[in-house]
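Sequence only, no structure available. Ideas?
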Amino acid sequence: MTSVFTKPAPLAPLTRARSVDINAIVNAVDSAFDQLPNVEEINGLKGAVSTLVDIVQTVDEALIEVDTQLDALPTASELVVLQGNISDLNTNKASLAQLAAPSGAGLAGTSAAGTGAVATTVRAKMLESVTVNDYMSSAERVDALSGSPVLDHAAAFARALAAAKTVHGDPACVYRIGSTVDVPSNKRLLGGGATIKGVAGVVAFHILGDRNRIYDWDIDANGALYFIRNDGQRNSIEWNTFVGDVGHYVFCFGAKYPRVCNNTVDGQGVYLITTSFVFEDCASINASHNTFTDIEHWCIQVRGATKHGTICGNVCSASEYNATIVATAGQTVFNFTISNSCHLAGVQVNGFPYDVGVTFAPAIPAATPTKNFTVTFAAGRTAGDSVKLIAHRAAENIQINGTSSDITISGNTCKGGGDSGILLAGSSKRCSVTGNIISNIAYAGISLEGGVTGCIVSGNIISDCSLVTTTATYSSGILLGGGDNSVFGNTIENTTTPPTMKYGVSVNTYNTDDGTADKSLKLGLNTYIGTFTKKIFIPNEDSAQRRQSIVIVGGLTTPYPERINLDGAWTNVPVNTDYWTYTGFGATLALRDTTIKQGGVASLKTVAGEYVEITPTARDIFFDTIVQITFRAKNDSGSSYVQTFITLAGSVIGSPGITITDPEWRHYTLSFPITANITPATFMMRVGANTGFANVDQFDVQMTRID
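Reply:
I predicted one. C-alpha cells follow.
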C-alpha cells in the first residue's frame, strides 16, 4: 500500500549572522531529515504516481470519445427535422396498427414490371391465388392431412372460391366434400395432385358459372351422385384422375362448350359406375383424349337434344373376365366364378358364340354386378365341349342417344366391352363415326339403330367382335339401320379361329319414308378380311321397316336383260314379252301418250282409280341383290304413284312407294333388297293414280350384288 505522508513545510531562509551557531544548524538539519519520507514511503509514492498517470490517460481517452459523440449529435436544424418525423410517426400510429394486422399487407402497393402495368395492392395480388388450407380451421387442416378425413371441407372450398380467382389444393391433403360446393364464374380449381373424396349421394361440385377450370385433382367419388355437375358455359374439366363408385363423374346438363379432356378414369375394383361422362341437352361438346379402364356401363354418353360436338382420341379398355369348364356328357348346368363383379355375360362353346337355348342366372344384364353366374343349356353338352363364360363390366364404350345431332366420333380406341363398341341410337342424326379402332366387343363393333338418320360410318377398323351373339343384327362388325345412313371404306376383320362375326355388315331396322334414293341406306367400298358367313347381310322379314331402299356403292351392277318398252304399239297395257308381263285393274288401266313424253315415242299415262301391274319374269337373277328401279315422271293433276310389292313369308307386302306430285319432269329411284326370304325371288311394280293423272316414262331396272 502506498504511504500517505504530509509534505514538510519549507525551510526558513538562512540569514547571515555575525557568529555561526553550529549546534543550531545541526539541529535544524537533523530536524529536516526527520521530515523526509523513508524508503517504504517513497516506493508508495511511486505507485501512486503511476496510478495517477493511468487515471489521467483513461480520462483523456474518455474525453476523446465524448468529443466524437458530440460531433455525431444532430445540429440544431437536424433536430428540427427529427422532431417533425417524430410527429409524423405519432400521426401514423393507426396505420402502423393496421400493418400489424393480418390484412396489413394490403396497404402495400405493387405493380407488374414493364410499361403500362396497373398499380394494385399486395393484398389484391395475393388474393388472386389461394389454397384451400388458407380457409380451413386447425382441426380441418389436421383432418385433411390425416389422409382419412371425416370432416366436411366443402365450406372451406366455398370460402376460398368466394375470395380468389385461383384455388390450389395441397398435395399432402385429402379433402372430403360432404355437401355441394357451388362454383361461380371465372374460377380455377388447381389440384396439383391433391385428393378430393366425395360422399355417397352428394353432388360434390356444381358449376353454375362460366369459364371455370377444374384441373389436376385425384378424385375418389366414393359413391357420389355426380362428382361434378356442369351447367355453365365454356367450363373445362381436365387432367384429373377419377376412381370410386359414382352415378356420373362428370354430368354436363344444358352446358355450352363444355370441355372434358385428358382425364383418366379407372374402374378397376369399383363396384358401380353408371356412366363416367354424360352430356345432356348440351351444345358444342368436347370429350377428347380421355382414358377409361374397366368402366361399368358407359364411358361417354351423349343424350337429350345435344347438338354439335367432338368425341376424339379417347381410349376405352374393358377387361374380359372369363372362366372355362370342360363339359361332361349330357351336362346342362355350368357354375362359373370370375375374378371381378360384372353385369354383362355370354358364352362360347368350342370358340363359337352361343346364345340360343341357353339361360343365365342372374338374368343378363344382371341387376347387381356379380362374380357368380349359372349357365343352363336346354340340351346336354357333348363330353369334352369347352364352355367359356365371357363377362364384361362395360356396356357400350361410346353411346349417342336421344335427338342428339352433328356429333363427330373420331380416332377413338375401343378394346373390349359387353355390348356394342360405339352405339348410335334413339333419333340421333348427322353424326360421323370415322377412323376408330374397335376390337373384342361382345356385340357389334359399331351399331346404328332404327331411328338414326343422316350418319356416316367410314374409315374404321373393326376386329373380332360379336364374341357372345349369333343374332343376325349384332353378329357383325357394323350394324346398319335407320335411314339415309352411309357405310364406306371400313376394314372389318375376322382374325380368330374360329371366327366370331358371322357378317361384315348387317342391315337392321330402317325407315325410308317413301323409298327414294335420298332416304336409302348406302354401303360399299369396305374391306373384309377373314371368313364370314356373308360379308353383307340384308334380311327380308315380314316387317315394313326391313325392306326399304338400300344402295350398294362400288358393287357389281348389271342391268335387267330387257327394258320396259312403252314406245311400241299397245292399248291399256304394254305387250307381254319374255322378260315382262303386264296386267292391271280397271276399265282402261293406262293410256299410251305420244304427246307428253321424255325422249321416246310414247309414255304411260295413268288413269284415276286404276293401275297397271308390271312383273319381271327372270326371277333367279334378282336373288341376293339390291334392285334399283329408276324412272321419270310428270304430274298433271291429282295424285299418281309407283309402288313395288314382294311376296314375303307367304304374304304380298307393299312398299310405301313413290307419290308423283311434281308438275315438271323429275327423276325418281326406288331401291330394295331381295334375299332368301322373298319367294319367289322377284317383285311386282304397280303404276296408277288415285286421282287425276301423270305421265311416267323411261323405266330402268338394275341389280347390284350384295356380297
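The helical segments are 22-35, 39-72, 76-91, 93-100, 122-126, 138-145, 154-163.
Hope that gets you unstuck.
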